Amino acid sequence: MPILSRFLIRASLLYFAAITLLGGALLINKAMPFNSNLWRFYSLHIEWAFVGWIIQLVLGVACWIFPKPPGGVRHIWLGWVGFVLINAALIALPTISTVGIFSYPNLKLISHLFQILGILAIAGHLWIRIGFLPAFLKSN
Are 75 and 128 spatial neighbours (Cβ–Cβ below 8 Å)? Predict the structure, then answer.
């Protein structure tokens, strides 16, 4: 299994553990209210569930299963850029805005932009692996 796949799948499992704990706390808080501020983490819980767990797991398995070209995998940096962008967006931006350390109106928009760019970078890495190399990446 390629190292990029291992990192994507391990990160997705860490997000799965985090959303399980956070979801459990939210459900307990709904049944027996003990902290009204806990509901500020609901949107973070949803974002980590869909992008952190599901999408990263799918991308990790795709990086593992997609065919490798005969000359080896080129442009692996696109996959790593995507991994860093997705996780930076998931950890730093929404967490900081949810906790309230830094309040900026467009923080969610920046986070979603980083997530989209990260997914597109990994998709570009996979696109190159199946043989479609854009003209600006061809080495003549």
Answer: yes
pTM for the structure as a whole: 0.83
> In b/e form, how buried is each residue of 27-55, taking b as 16+ CB within 10 angstroms?
eebeeeeeeeeeeebeebbebbbebbbeb
Which residue segments constitute the domains of the chain, with CATH numbers given? Answer: 3-134 (1.20.120)
Is the separation of the CB atoms in 114 and 84 below 8 Å? no
Per-residue pLDDT reduced to its tens digit, 70-105: 777 777 888 999 999 999 999 887 777 666 666 666
DSSP 56-96: HHHHHHHHHHSPPPTT----THHHHHHHHHHHHHHHHHHHH
